[in-house]
Amino acid sequence: MHNKLIYVGLSGGVDSAVSALLLKQQGYQVRGIHLRLWEPETEPGSEDVIKAARVAEQLQIPFEVMDWREKFRSEVVETYIQVLGRGQTPNPCIHCNQTIKWGALWEQVHASGADYLASGHYARLLAGQQGVELHKAINLAKDQSYFLAMLTRQTFRHMLLPLGGFAKPQVRAIAAEAGLEVASRKDSEDLCFLKGLDQEGFLRRYAPHLLQPGPILDGSGNLLGEHRGLPLYTIGQRKGICVAAEAPLYVMAKDLAANALRVGRADELAHSKILAGRPNWISGKAPDLGKIYQVKIRAAALPASASLQILASGDIIASLEKPLRDITAGQYLAVYDGDCCLGSAAIIEPR
RNA sequence: AGGGGCAUGGUGCAACGGCAGCACACCGGACUUUGAAUCCGUUGAUCCUGGUUCGAAUCCAAGUGCCCCUG
Fold first, then answer.
1. What is the Cα–Cα distance from A318 to A277, expressed in whole angstroms?
2. Are strands A116-118 and A5-9 parallel, antiparallel or unpaired?
3. Residue A79 CA distance to nucleotide B36 C1' (Å)
4. How large is the average pLDDT for residues A326-334?
5. pTM across the whole model
């Protein structure tokens, strides 16, 4: 009845399947598209492709598969490895959303006549006074707006997120009621391209040159042990240091020049300012500089109150009301006004 | 090769002659569409030999190893 053509990215999981189902029920003309993004040579036919195809079959919607493994490798995986090589902690899901899912994929389906591209992300797009706004999901525990915060309003205009108002159990119930076989499929975890490997195994295989052992030092420069390669550690990390001390040790910093890992106590991790790169403001305009907003420094972080200032360079500084730990270069500082996500910027360093 | 001290899981420390515990580390699980954090849990030890004792990590003796002081 709408006559609108919508493509839904079908991952093979329950979320995207229910997204397609809901849109179909709303009367849209729905087509499923699955991206093959990563399959190691040894992996036989991907289970995800089969599951996605089955979803489309059950929903009786057209379905196609795009083999974008090379594109994914050059756009997302290469960036991931490069950022690790710079001593930072990449967020490949954000990069994938920018370049693949809402970049190249949109262009592709748009060229095929699509009016919208939908996904199973848990976030909401609401009509605001100045246009579409990105809001957190109703179910805050599942909210994924952080991963979408580097996208532009231009993109949000043709994006549909049918699950933003649902809780996960509801989604599974809807899938079960519709008889979808993926209803009970477990949620995906970890990076999609790790596929059973842990990060160390992945890097040993695809970027072994990054795994150079080096010294673990405390704040005074004392040698405490040996690390297995700086990319395996991120700021605030506790596990994997393999050094027994009076109190737990955490990664404070990575010294690329010396290939050294600096560790310290939890209370030494706190900082009250964050320098982040030129931000992406979804509305196109910078927020109110005098106001207190909420910021998140990682997807699963609790929001923290902060005010913003904009430097001449265009970079921003967030001044936190209470110090935060684990402020990590390569991750993103997402800014919220209540439930509304104003935008995001790549974290450069704590101040 | 003078005197003193120490020896307990991987590391650092507890335990009156009476069930060997704690912290850190490791490993596992929960959580999680980034990396983490966090929470829960499991392994795992009395240097060696002999003696005293109903009973020894604990007391005694020798051995071995380490540390400190004095030549």
1. 11
2. parallel
3. 19
4. 95
5. 0.89
